[in-house]
Structures are given as structure tokens and as C-alpha cells.
Specification:
Layout (H helix, E strand, L loop, with lengths): L4 H4 L16 E3 L20 E3 L21 E3 L21 E3 L20 E3 L11 E4 L2 E4 L24
Parallel strand pairs: 1-2, 2-3, 3-4, 4-5
Antiparallel strand pairs: 6-7
Pfam family, one: LRR_8
Keywords: Leucine-rich repeat, Repeat
InterPro entries: Leu-rich_rpt (IPR001611), Leu-rich_rpt_typical-subtyp (IPR003591), LRR_dom_sf (IPR032675), LRR_domain-containing (IPR050216)
Amino acid sequence: ASALVPLLRGHRSCSSSSCGRAVQPLILSKNEIVDFPNEIQSLVCLEKLELNQNQIRVIPEGVFSHLSRLKHLRLNNNRLGALPRDLAACHNSLQYLNISNNLFRTFPQPVLQLARLQELHVQNNLFPVQVRTISIGPRSLTLPLFADHSSIKPLYLSSPYQSPLF
């Protein structure tokens, strides 16, 4: 994480008028990062963060508290088993979240508070999946046809359509 400090120097804070020059996308994919870089929490103008394909096991609480502009977050292909509660601080901004190919055993509750989320990837985790209802924004869809199945792997839901599924 200390190697990240020079990269972030000079971009630790910004006003709305200076955000155009600050770090907005930060791509740290495929770097074998083990410890989540805490310096990221000071990048208040950050809109896109990609930390996929690393070895991150834990994201400490407080990291997302000041990232209210974050729209795109890729954490896939790490070793995560939980998300910090303060991810909910991005509830009005986060539109894309990819946490696939991690070690989640239960669905991360902070994701349920992300009101603007449009695309969510959760496949290839360790969920003991029992799908009864899928809630997408203001709509929910109950799937009684899955009621007798104890496990559904994988369930892919992506819809470029605005019409109901059934």
C-alpha cells in the first residue's frame, strides 16, 4: 500500500471545481495487491475504481465513507468474503458493482442499500443459493419455479430490456 502513496499525492482532496483534474478513474487491476490501499479513501472525486484480479481479503470499514461520487467498482477475482457496511455511503452514486469470483458465503447486505445500482455481478461465489425473489429497483419478481431447487448455479440476470421478464 505504501507504493500507492506517490500515485495519490496531490489528489487527496478536491472541491467540485477541481474534480476535473483529480484522480477519477483508478485502475489497479492485476497487481497482486493483498492489503486494500487505505489511501483510496481520501480520493473524494473518485468515480471509477478497479481493484479486480488481486489477492485482497478484507476491505476495512471507513474506506467508502468519503467516496460519494463512486459510480463504478470492480472487486471481482479477489479473496473477499464480506463488504464493509460503509459501502452504503455510495447509495446515490454507485451504478456498477462486480464482486464475482470471490469467497462470499452470504449476500453482502450493503449492496441492498445501493439505490442507483444498475448492474451487479455476483457469480462464482460460495453462496448456498435459494432464489425465491429477485428485486430489481422498484420492481420485484417472484420465481416459484425455483422453489423446489436447493441450489441454482449460476443465475445470470442481465436485461437490456425495459419490459417484464414474463
